[in-house]
């Protein structure tokens, strides 16, 4: 769901002067490069991997999706600035989603680089490594959102199980907020649950930079509720984390998706205002009686074009139903709605 006036598809990044996803190792500042890696069949188009140079080797913020085209491009771009995979000493991964984590863990184990990930992502990795896992774990999440037909469609579209070489446990678990030394730099690892339970952003206050992962994106709003095992109030967590990041100095946003952006404060304020509006709209949609997240999602506009729910593809419809359920759960936490678990999904009603 886009909330900026500049859609991600057309956003130019100031470090390159080109569309933000254009291939290259773009210099953000002295000793830091941004490398966009492709995300085939994904509306986000690319993920930005950030390379920090030190006297002892490289630290990468996120790793990309472990697919051949992304691996080859990362190798080529590193070579363009004088490095290779063997120079990578550490990956600081923002969260467990495949476009951030899987190439990091594959390269980390091949080349001996330390892979660090937030402890809150451990339940997700344990679930993926469960030998009894025999179906898409999001199917049950869709059903609790009342999206039963979508759950069946997602189940029918399931292919082979996950490649477990991409879902190895990290070398280092990050817990709480703390400082990390990266060469001569001091980076604050800040726990920002919401998009996922173990999401981290990395702030280098001395240089005025925020490696924001999927927590603060300049042209779109991060998905909420798309995580397993599900958490009770992901939107409440996300908005609290936004407030936490707002308390930091105003920093240049180095996002995982989209162009480098000038003000973390401005973007956080926009994201908070967006979700406050969505909460009000979700509550208004309950006026006709108890509803599921799937039902309420039909009353809302989606993407920057405010498209009708039925115009979305099946995957986006599922994401929208889960995100709407997250808004309704926060309304319950705020005392503005009630919830009841039923065989048809969680039913919400206005107070």
Describe the protein in words.
It comes from Nocardioides conyzicola. The structure is a single chain. This protein has 351 residues and is an alpha/beta fold. It is built from 9 helices and 16 strands. It has helices at 68-80, 98-111, 122-128, 138-144, 148-156, 234-246, 264-285, 293-297, 314-333, and strands at 12-13, 18-19, 26-29, 32-38, 46-54, 57-61, 88-92, 114-118, 172-174, 178-182, 185-191, 200-204, 209-213, 252-255, 337-342, 345-350. A 7-stranded mixed β-sheet has the order 3-4-5-6-7-8-9, with helices on one face. The longest helix is centred in the C-terminal third of the chain and has 22 residues, at 264-285. The radius of gyration is 20 Å and the shape is globular.
Sheet with the most strands, sense and barrel status: 7 strands, mixed
Amount of beta strand: 15-25%
Which overall shape is indicated by the principal axes computed on the Cα atoms?
globular
- Give the terminus-to-terminus CA distance: 28 Å
Order of helices and strands: EEEEEEHEHEHHHEEEEEHEHHHEE
Number of strands: 16
**Strand neighbour order, sheet with most strands:** 3-4-5-6-7-8-9
Report helical residue fraction. Answer: 25-40%
* Helix/strand class: alpha/beta
Helix and strand arrangement:
Elements: E1 12-13, E2 18-19, E3 26-29, E4 32-38, E5 46-54, E6 57-61, H1 68-80, E7 88-92, H2 98-111, E8 114-118, H3 122-128, H4 138-144, H5 148-156, E9 172-174, E10 178-182, E11 185-191, E12 200-204, E13 209-213, H6 234-246, E14 252-255, H7 264-285, H8 293-297, H9 314-333, E15 337-342, E16 345-350
Parallel strand pairs: 6-7, 7-8, 8-9, 13-14
Antiparallel strand pairs: 1-2, 3-4, 4-5, 5-6, 10-11, 11-12, 12-13, 15-16
Helix pairs in contact: 4-5, 5-9, 6-7, 7-9
